[in-house]
Amino acid sequence: MRLDRLISQAAGLTRNEARKLIRSGQVTVNLQICWDTGAQTEESSQIKINNMTLDTRLDCHVMMNKPLDVLTAARDSHQKTVMDLLPLRFQKIRCMPVGRLDKDSAGLLLFTTDGNLSHRLLSPQRKIMKEYHALVSGKLDKASQNAFSTGIRLKDFTALPAELVIIRSGDRDSEALVRLHEGKHRQVRRMFQSLGHEVKALSRLAFGPIRLDASLPPGSWRELRPEEFDLLKEAAGLG
Questions:
Q1: How many CB atoms lie within 10 A of CB 127?
Q2: Quick check: 25 and 33 in contact, CB under 8 A?
Q3: Percent of the chain with pLDDT over 90
Q4: Neighbouring C-beta atoms of residue 120, cutoff 10 Å
């Protein structure tokens, strides 16, 4: 890859900004100053800018604790998106969300530069489990669990059987875990709504084998550990 392009992507700079750094002698490649903006450079090369080593990896796999009121979108001219919470270099290398969480939902959101991995994780044929924590109006009971486990019929489709684990049930509101193996638009909310319950809060806790890191506050992120990435590939049938 051209040196200016690699620096642009890895440092989150424009191509012109990268070229200026190179032409000013501030860039070294494998300990040698490089003045050639178009020099063909390996991703594995050691690149430094003003003696600071640049992370030139062009792949990334990330988990985020998505906060409320943020869109799952690459960009939006009027509203904050999840990409605004990541370093600019991740946008440059197209580290994109795996699926989406609604603006009014929070919790685990995965990102990857691997389009094939993302496609397979989202494929209905894989039936990858997603787990949510829900706070809903009204009282949940055995009948609610039975409805989830047999498959709730909605206006445009019948949901696959899902697991409803009641954490707390009260006359005013209830808390539960929902585990399902599909992920249609606003599905969990619609399933509860069909039973007469309004979802007051919804947060995703797990996507397949990956659980949200409890140490991540809303709006923060971290890269997946190698063992987590291996589990994710295995879930996608790429292990």
A1: 10
A2: yes
A3: 84
A4: 19
Helices (H), the chain: 3-11, 15-23, 88-92, 115-122, 142-150, 187-194, 226-235
**Residue for token pair 């879930």:** 235
For 179, residues 6+ apart whose C-beta sits below 8 A from its C-beta are 129, 130, 131, 132, 162, 163, 165
**In Å, how far are 24, 43, 138, 142, 234 from 92, measured between CA atoms?**
23, 15, 46, 49, 27
pLDDT digits (tens, 9 = 90+) for 173-212: 999 999 999 989 999 999 999 999 999 999 999 999 999 9
Is residue 69 flagged as an active site residue?
A: no
- Catalytic, out of 102, 173, 213, 230: 102
Domain count, the chain: 3
CATH of the domain at 12: 3.10.290.10
Structure confidence by residue, pLDDT tens digits, 47-101: 999 999 988 878 999 999 999 999 999 888 899 999 999 998 888 889 999 999 9
CA atoms within a 13 Å half-sphere pointing along the CA-CB vector of 89: 15
Query: Residue 51, Cβ neighbours under 10 Å: how many?
Result: 7
Range of the domain at 74: 61-124+210-235
Kindly report the pTM of this predicted structure: 0.85
